[in-house]
């Protein structure tokens, strides 16, 4: 997930940009931060937040533990930064191609989110569990949350409505958040928390898409 971090010494055309004074030091700092973030993601996912230690994470990164504290201050600071990069990875995902029917659009949207969560389920489980017991962490994470990456779905719902395939009296904004809530309920709670099977979740999404389209389409 963190492999898409750009090397700041590489230009847009792929050539190495000329180094500025102090460039080597900045590059070393960038590389060290990147290694610690990747190690944090791995160790948090494998052991959980409580069992993971800054010493373990630094050892996985192959760096001195003091560097972790210099860049992130604490284990919680590192967790927040890893979570921030995970959210940025979501933002950088390209939307899937538009679907021909509303039912397929809803189903594809939900299953895409399910598959992303599945790839990162261990880390997501940690984030959810920490947010439940740590109020300050929860507040910080709430500020980091952004549903903008899913905005393409709203645009597609409006397009269906403009074509006369969705009732004109429907609140698209409300529908959008209904679909997000369904993705959270099944993808996170049923799959990650209660360990329901992928096929179970996809069946739930298919039934939801089919049933809701029966009431909102024309």
Please characterize this protein's 3D structure.
- The protein is mainly α.
- The protein folds into two domains: 2-75, Orthogonal Bundle (Arc Repressor Mutant, subunit A); 93-216.
- Helices cover 70% and strands 0% of the residues.
- The protein has helices at 23-47, 54-61, 65-72, 75-91, 102-119, 121-133, 135-144, 151-162, 172-193, 198-216.
- Helix 1 crosses helix 2, helix 3 (65-72) packs across helix 4 (75-91) and helix 6 (121-133) packs across helix 7.
- The longest helix is centred in the N-terminal third of the chain and has 25 residues, at 23-47.
- The chain starts with 22 loop residues before the first helix and ends with a helix.
- Mean pLDDT is 85; it is low at 1-21.
List its traits.
218 residues, mainly alpha, Arc Repressor Mutant, subunit A, 70% helix, 0% strand, disordered N terminus
Estimate the helix proportion, in percent.
55-70%
How many individual β-strands? 0
What is the number of helical segments per DSSP (H or I, 4+ residues)? 10
Average pLDDT metric = 85
Kindly report how far apart the N and C termini lie. Answer: 41 Å
Strand residue percentage: under 5%
Based on Cα principal axes, name the global outline: elongated
The parts where pLDDT drops under 50 for at least 5 residues are 1-21
Integer count of domains = 2
Structural class computed from helices and strand pairing: mainly alpha
User: What gyration radius follows from the Cα positions, in whole Å?
Assistant: 21 Å
User: How would you sum up the major sheet?
Assistant: none
SSE topology string: HHHHHHHHHH
């Amino acid at each position: 997930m963190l492999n898409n971090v750009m090397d700041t010494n590489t230009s847009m055309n792929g050539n190495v940009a000329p180094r500025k004074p102090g460039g080597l030091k900045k590059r070393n700092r960038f590389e060290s931060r990147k290694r610690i973030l990747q190690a944090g993601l791995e160790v948090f996912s494998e052991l959980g937040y409580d069992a993971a230690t800054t010493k373990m994470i630094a050892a996985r990164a192959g760096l001195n533990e003091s560097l972790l504290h210099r860049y992130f201050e604490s284990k919680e600071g590192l967790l927040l930064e890893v979570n921030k990069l995970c959210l940025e990875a979501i933002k950088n995902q390209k939307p899937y191609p538009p679907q021909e029917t509303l039912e397929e659009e809803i189903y594809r949207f939900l299953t895409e989110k399910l598959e992303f969560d599945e790839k990162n389920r261990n880390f997501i489980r940690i984030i959810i569990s920490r947010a439940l017991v740590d109020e300050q962490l929860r507040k910080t994470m709430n500020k980091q949350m952004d549903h903008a990456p899913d905005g393409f779905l709203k645009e597609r719902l409006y397009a269906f409505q403009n074509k006369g395939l969705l009732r004109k009296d429907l609140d698209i904004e409300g529908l959008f958040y209904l679909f997000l809530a369904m993705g959270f309920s099944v993808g996170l709670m049923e799959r990650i928390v209660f360990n329901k099977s992928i096929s179970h979740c996809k069946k739930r999404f298919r039934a939801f898409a089919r049933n809701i389209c029966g009431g909102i389409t024309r």
